[in-house]
Amino acid sequence: FQANRDRAAPLLAKLKSDGIGHMIGGKTVPSVSGQTFETKSPVDGAVLASVARGTAEDIDRAATAAATAFKSWRDMPAAARKKLLHRVADAIEDNADDIAVLECIDTGQAHRFMAKAAIRAAENFRFFADKCGEARDGLNTPSEEHWNISTRVPIGPVGVITPWNTPFMLSTWKIAPALAAGCTVVHKPAEWSPVTADLLAKLAKQAGLPDGVLNTVHGMGEEAGKALTEHPAIKAIGFVGESATGSAIMAQGAPTLKRVHFELGGKNPVIVFDDADLDRALDAVVFMIYSLNGERCTSSSRLLVQENIAEKFIEKLTARVKALKVGHPLDPATEIGPLIHERHLAKVCSYFDVAKKDGATIAAGGKPHDGPGGGHYVQPTLVTGAHARMRVAQEEVFGPFLTVIPFKDEKDAIEIANGVQYGLTGYVWTGDMGRALRVADALEAGMIWLNSENVRHLPTPFGGMKASGIGRDGGDYSFDFYMETKHVSLAR
Ligand code: NAD
């Protein structure tokens, strides 16, 4: 704990004195308007830094810088681009410990999880660095009279808009493939967590990324974010955030015919059948909602458990939830840190009353938690006695909040699992592989894990159905979004 604090102290002092500017065309600059906003720590409400508050003018400067840099970045030999992106990964790895503590203080996420997040971020860069050039390979499908060659070219400068949950890792997940595809980027990070986005822009510059290839404009969603989605030089928007914001972005981008890629909300089911390895299932159920403060799009926030094992399973689960350690995010023993913002804490806590009004039972938690620093802590919460139509079984709470819904049989489980507007992930626990595959086939979700918690393999497709998203990331799927497919016919 003390070692983490000692590491954080000088970084925070420097952050406070330097403040956070935009990164535009390789330079750290204030907003044209001179406006700023304060970013505060969820741990104790301390002001971490004064941050440049971008407006349409700043977005215009950044989009122009990205457009200017585009041609030479697009035309850079793949081997050179690959080398540069590996250098960004090196820089992230070299600074992983600093990134981890800053992320903890800026977002409230526990260090035990954030220590790995920076490593994952470096992997994102390495994986896509190695794919540089691959996406441009042509495909020849000759006909009688022509050679027909399909190629892919980068779409142009793109906008990347990211949320505040695990912001560093998540930003690299969107930015690395865009850069590998040959696009230049304007990044608008979440206003509640600007610290590590600033660090990423600086590390990328130090690693030698040419000026204008990765630009960062901080600010509010409805101001800087909106301007980015409307800018004519920006050809596509990769967005991660709430479903309602996705709808707004689609409308904002319509006049300039923006291509959009959305990773949105979820209300993901974990389904536990009576023939499952119940000890493993219990571990996974706890991990997938109470890690990362439950502020995780892929969290399994609905537990569907078979009726005949429900009582015993819930009893063990309740004991596990009550034993979770809420505390300071830099304490390695902490499992749940403070939530990102007082507004988000109020939202999560509002569901305690919603659950009670709907007639459900709060079996564990159900109150704010008095944690170190007096920040936005909440007790990990377990709601039982719920049925599928209740609000706590339908709405994304996005906190350490799990709703348990018993089911009778396979058909019942599938119906409940699919009975929400979302369709991001599903988790199935059963000893019967035939059933596992049948249920996976029937679930309306973009990603399904059988007898496993969420483990990412970077070449595989990542994304959601229904209100959980449009498009897929990962491997070559990312290049489908960041590139145009071009067809060339040559007479034989
Ligand atoms: P949010 O939608 O409020 O904000 C996300 C980003 O969009 C922020 O940078 C914000 O400034 C910007 N924004 C807001 N309004 C905008 C507008 N009108 N135009 C342009 N940009 C705008 O989301 P959040 O609260 O920061 O993040 C939590 C949400 O993100 C949850 O719903 C969660 O499920 C979702 N999420 C999804 C995935 C996924 O992969 N599916 C991953 C992480 C988070």
From TrEMBL:
It is an enzyme of class 1 (oxidoreductase). Its EC number is 1.2.1.8. GO terms for biological process: 4-hydroxyphenylacetate catabolic process. Residues 33-488 form the Aldehyde dehydrogenase domain. It holds the Pfam family Aldedh. It comes from the Bacteria. One of its GO terms (molecular function) is 5-carboxymethyl-2-hydroxymuconic-semialdehyde dehydrogenase activity. Signal peptide: none annotated. This is 2-hydroxymuconic semialdehyde dehydrogenase. Keywords: NAD, Oxidation, Oxidoreductase. Belongs to the aldehyde dehydrogenase family. The active site is at E263.
